[in-house]
Amino acid sequence: MLQPYTLRQWQSGDEESLAKNTNNYNIWRNLKDIFPHPYTIEEAFGWIKIAKNSHENFAIIVDNEAVGGIGILLKDDIYQKNAEIGYWLGEAYWGKGIISSAITEIIDYAFKGYDIHRIYAGVFEYNLASMRVLEKAGFHQEAILKKSLFKENQVYDEHIFVKFRA
Q1: How many Cβ atoms sit within 10 Å of the Cβ of residue 115?
Q2: How many whole angstroms separate alpha carbon 111 and alpha carbon 142?
């Protein structure tokens, strides 16, 4: 059963719940290294300062607390019709249908609001749960980039999932 949530822009006051929910190895190991670990309150203040005016990054709110984040990264140059989707969710909220629903919501928002025709996500080979939620949201696997990711002194395959404008 889907746990109720809302998406909204990040705002001042989200810092404490952001730091609390992101300071988790099980989240960090599935994200790019630009996402810090440990995730401190200082990082949270820095992110909120950047993201609160963004129209591409949103907080996932449950019971008035920021428990996750989702957004798109618009590409440029010859990739200007593409966007990359990224997301994370506090571990206490995994398996409640939130991220699958939020992905669908962001995809609709992105295709309506931006002149893009393709949204994609890169997933570590071991993150089967993320692959499943993308498939639930209508993505399909487009490619496997062999030994293309380096995390924690290990090399991994990256699974690329894509959804095209209907």
Answers
A1: 9
A2: 19
Rounded Cα gap, residues 131 and 100, in angstroms: 11
Q: How far apart are CA 81 and CA 59, in angstroms?
A: 24
Which pLDDT tens digit goes with each residue over 62-120?
999 999 999 999 999 999 999 999 999 999 999 999 999 999 999 999 999 999 999 99
With DSSP H G I counted as helix, E B as strand and the rest as coil, what are the percentages for the chain, rounded to 5? Answer: 35, 35, 35
Residue 139's identity, in one-letter code, is: F
| Residue 4 per-residue DSSP state | P
- The pair of structure tokens assigned to 147 is 């030994």
Residue 13 DSSP label: T
